[in-house]
Amino acid sequence: MNLSDIMKIAERVECVQPSPPRAVFDLASTLDDVVDLTLGDPDLPPPHNVREAACRAIMEGRTRYSANAGLKELRRLIAADAEKKLGIPIDPEQEVIVTVGAMEASFLSLYTLLKPGDEVVIHAPFWINYAQVVRSLGAVPVFVYTRPEEDFQLTSEALEAVLTPRTRLVILNSPNNPTGAIIPAETLKKIARLAQERNFAILSDEIYESLVYDGKSADSILSLPGMKERSILINGMSKRFAMTGYRLGWAIAPAPLIAQMTKMQENIVACAPLPAQYAGIEALSGNTDSNFIREEFQHRRDVLYKGINAIPGLVCKPIPATFYAMVDISGSGLEAEEFVYRMLREVKVATVFGPAYGGEDYKDFIRIAFTMKEERLSTALERMAKFMENIRK
Ligand code: PLP
Fold first, then answer.
1. Quick one: which H or E segment has residue 310?
2. Mutation choice for ligand 1 from 132, 203, 237, 239, CB with most ligand atoms inside 8 A
3. Angle, alpha carbons 154-334-376 (nearest 5°)
């Protein structure tokens, strides 16, 4: 064997494509004065007491390994928080694992559950990681394309149409990145019935559950009878407490699955970082008010929605949740990828092209993450208006 043979990259890694949002982000970082609306990374700091708790843990030397599944107290608080929302009992010792972000929770779930050839249904447009990880494991992503003219709503009929005897898992992401769509309770009931009749599992990624606006909320499929046994719930601190860099998330799942995920966790990261876990305890302890985060994003949502719809040729539908907007750019006469790169070069606003989230069905859309302060958002809107004017000339 020669050197190139022994250093050959494994197929399971080679098949993973670099993510387009990162590519635009990387290009944007080489240019001056770009307003970067690519990544879902809030610019707000976490609540003060949460930051203090992380610092205290560091200064007091509470920085060793924890149990692989995470600190008991944190798991207790996560279970209690979820019980309150779902109305079902959750055993903190056996049904919860603390992970390095929701990202590791979903990776670990898929890694633990899937075998090559299993089909995994993903509703598009989707968070890019799902399809990448499913493919990397030799399983097969099967897409259900939600339509812009139906407000990107997933229907149980469309889901049923792609089920086969090989369907092992359906991934639900409500509220959804990148559309902000929330799956209504009625649809969740129909999906739950399908899951039981056709015998598949659910991975419910509810990371944006805390960013639902206008006094509304998003339901979870786990609260429906018979669903906890066949579901994995993914959540975390990143969006609710603006703690992206703390890398703290969790999965709630049946005990045998959590036991296997915990075994794998020992071989991957041992445990989530301890200062982050102590910050997480503080965040969920009842002393932390995170409403200001939702209120701030609701305000930015209003600014963006109004601003985009005031630009001739751009259309933004109402955004019920998350900090993303899918903006219809068909009025520009350009396809999304050309639109994104031209807008970045010509007026220094970075966004992501819709096809990155599920293919050509979304070629008339760009995704905007409104994680910037209002002032920067307003600058982006002015620049976008200028860009559209230039195109028309
Ligand atoms: N799930 C979805 C749908 C996301 O959009 C993201 C991050 O943007 C994550 C999970 C990962 O979150 P975390 O920062 O907790 O790893």
1. none
2. 239
3. 80
Ligand 1 shell residues, CB under 6 Å: 40, 101-103, 127, 173, 177, 205, 207, 236, 238, 244, 249
Q: How far apart are CA 341 and CA 212, in angstroms?
A: 31
The CATH-assigned architecture of domain 3-46+290-392 is Alpha-Beta Complex (3.90)
pLDDT in tens, 298-347: 999 999 999 999 999 999 999 999 999 999 999 999 999 999 999 999 99
The CATH architecture of the domain made up of 48-283 is: 3-Layer(aba) Sandwich (3.40)
Per residue in 153-173, pLDDT (tens digit) is 999 999 999 999 999 999 999
Render pLDDT for 247-278 as a digit per residue (tens, 0 to 9): 999 999 999 999 999 999 999 999 999 999 99
CB 143 within 8 A of CB 167: no
The residue extents of the domains of the chain are 3-46+290-392, 48-283
